[in-house]
Amino acid sequence: MTPFKPVLLEAVGVPDGHTIASYASRGGYAPLERALAEKQPSDVIEMVKASGLRGRGGAGFSTGLKWTFLPKDHPGPIYLCINADESEPGTFNNRILMEDDPHQVIEGIILSSYATRASTAYIYLRYEYPRSWHRLQAAIDEAYAAGYLGKNIRGTSFSLDVYLHRGAAAYICGEETGLIESLEGKRAWPRIKPPFPAIEGLFRKPTVVNNIETMACVAQIARRGVDWFKSIGVPADPANPRDPGSYGPKLYCLSGHVEKPGCYEAPLGITARQLIDELGGGVWKGRRAKAVIPGGISMGLMTESELDTPLDFAGPGKVGCLGLGTAAVVVIDDQTSIVDFLHNSCRFFAHESCGQCTPCREGTSWSLRMLERIKAGKGRLRDLDLLLEIGTTMGMMPGSTICGLADGAAWPIKNAIKKFRGEFEDYIKRTNPSGWMVTDPVPALQIVGAH
Amino acid sequence: MPVAIVDGQEIEIGADERLNCIEAARRAGKEIPHYCWHPGLSVVASCRMCLIETGQRDAATGKVTMVPKLVPGCQTPVKDGTVIVTESQLVKDSRARVEEALLIDHPIDCPICDKAGECLLQDYHFEHGQAERRADLHPFTSRKRDVGPTVTLFVDRCIMCTRCVRFTREVSGASELMVVSRGSSEEIDVFPGFPLDNKLAGNVVDLCPVGALGDKDFLYQQRVWFLKREANVCGGCSAGCSIHTEHNQDTVYRLKPRENPHVNTWWMCDDGRYGWHHLHDQSRVLAAGRRREAGKNGHGTPGDAFETIDWADVVTRLRDDLKAAGRLAVAVSPMLTVEEAWMLCAIARSIDPEAFLTLGNVPVIGADETFPGGFTIRAEKCPNRKGAEEVLALYGAGGRSWDDLVAHVAAGKADAAWVTGGYPTPWIDEAEAATFADLRCLVVQDLFESPLMKLATWRLPAAGFAERAGTWVNVAHHAQSFGQAIKPPAGVWPEGRLFWNMLGRRGLYDPVGVRQQIAGSAAPFAALAGDVPATGVDLRVRQLA
Predict the structure, then answer these.
(1) Is the pTM of this model over 0.80?
(2) Strands (E), A138-273
(3) Least CB-CB distance to B48: which of A357, A366, A444?
(4) Domains identified in chain A, total number
């Protein structure tokens, strides 16, 4: 693989790279000035549409297309929400961008607001990111002082205020309508759709919700052009009319059992094996990978033999995973129990399920309870089919819940049991030699009290 | 006319109706099970019990295109050509899984739960659930805590439909209830120091589809399957909420609001809800009595001042006494039904053609109280002022109030007075009652002793609201006819029965017959002809038509 010169991560390692002076010296904010002077908002939308940029938050929806869903000639206000509630386990690309190059993000936000005619943008920041909070706020202040934010930006009629809002550390606030509810000061229960946020979002006004990395990409597209962006990545599959292609650079968060974990920028379509071996220095301690999470825990698992899958938006789906997600690649070495992995995953989702929809609320806690019992040496083979069924009802059966996070909770269960069933069966038989074959209801741990 | 197709059956929907799939399916006789959806509250689509399959039939080709996923019936609007499938295997499986999930954290303490017998979780489990429990059993817990002066929360029984939370936000408006914690540990609770204490609080118990919210007034009093229900009207104020009186063996156990889009929608207030206890109060007047003749009363205590008169004798002796006394004045209570008021006026005029008829006392407490959801509790604490006034107008006595009667008596223009009451709370003081002291004959008909009754020549018991049958007209001219829910206590004749007999009618008191007679002879009541629907009729609308 030819080495890729970082673009989004250009400022990493640059002294004071997070300041406006450093950003300007690297050519920052000049594209914004050009766009404000020469382009109409619709031109910016067209530019982003032409670039084929797909949202970096997880779902991979076309950013330009999302913007066109806003009602035409709306009297306003229109809001732009930036999702920086980066809480998918294994994911930290937004944090790097916010800490090391916040102005790149802010330039993207200004360009996107200009394109969508939003005059207010909210950045919903994950609570656990104090450094991002300080750096972003400082950058916003700098941008105000330099006249890139506020009233009549650079003498145009375009005005924009950016507010930095700190969340309170809940996974569900990363769901776009959960984020909107939380911003409104409510419990972050995702909304039923339709209406979609583009029609009725924050404060019941048209709203676009985009990811931090998407904003950085918008800034880079404005600076380097559509052709540059389209020259990177994987073109659309002509055999699949629903595949719009995966263009541009992507930040991959490599963690887990690798020699050199970190956030790596690479063209979309790099294979998991290339990422682990060539950028990450291989699986740690000379071991082999047992499984790899392609893009955050909710995307499922790839086995060692599936590691040559390209990590573009279409790739992980071809090996039975949910998708690329946040491109947070977590490596699990061959000495790690997949039972432990699934237990951890179920614990996370049982803790983070917002509790609104019955299948997810009860399904996540039931699967956790079952995994705890299996780990306590009281597992039964029957539990595996039950777990698969819970996974199916809670998420994969389309339409069974309001938001997509139930899907995310279900996928690790489905992948782990389908791809590593042998290991689960061995574990259950080994830890529960006398009871693994029982199919009766599991008795209560305590005697039911008499009345 | 737009047409929707429910399980292959075509049903018509109004062109401007906004139905969801649950409502449309109901028209086809199909029940789509649901917990969180309620027609009076916002849609959250969170219980996922109403998941169904839908599609769209192309008007031109008749080809049906199905949506490739399950959708919540509560959230999906119905338009022309909407196809609803409520009984496919996928839908059935999904319902069974939701039922199973809901029961994982449920204590299944039905034997000690008040809701058993009218619990949606029970009903749906029998219909859509499965017999085997596959989830790990866990220890029985049934924590309960007070959330307000009238409501107890059984925390573990809750299925998190959030109907109660939405009610306090959208209808009663004080937002006392909320969801705390997250995921499967979430619970309904109140903020410390801010209990569920408003006049609509009792409705959350009706809304609760399971036994999580319990009404302290009803808790452990009666098994619901012993209760019989009668469609009644609340007598608490002039709003006239439609209710069900739920009773067993002539004892009322609770009142429940009865859906009526013209009056109370789905709700009732706690004043009305708990306003039935006076029916079973031991201090009620329980027998007809006449003051002993002077000199015959040897005992001296007020209680013994009256001798009990058999009702058959009351019918004749009362008429004779009033006739002998002379000029008659009659107060027609706004607690009486239209039929009773009409008969009372007829009797009065037959005794004294010049009888002075007025409206009885109209108790007013405070001011009308309107809640954010639009529900109003009226200040007038009587159910039939409009009806009584209309009847009085028929007898040329329109516009006369209780004050006119007091003035009339004070001016010495009456020799006898007949005051009907039926008030559950004290309504007259000693000073006002003293006005009536010098009458030759005073008839007082009421639920409880009062300063006025102490002066009475005739002391007659009255019936409570659930013991009457007839028609009440509420503050908005909406008339509702209702039947008798329970028998009055032994020794009490409801007013209608006494009046019927005093008019010389034969057989049992027939309120429907009287209503037809009024409707046939008096234009303002023409709308009451024939059968009156359970939700009542608007007297003005039919007049215009």
Answers:
(1) yes
(2) 161-166, 207-211, 233-234, 246-247, 249-256, 262-267
(3) A357
(4) 3
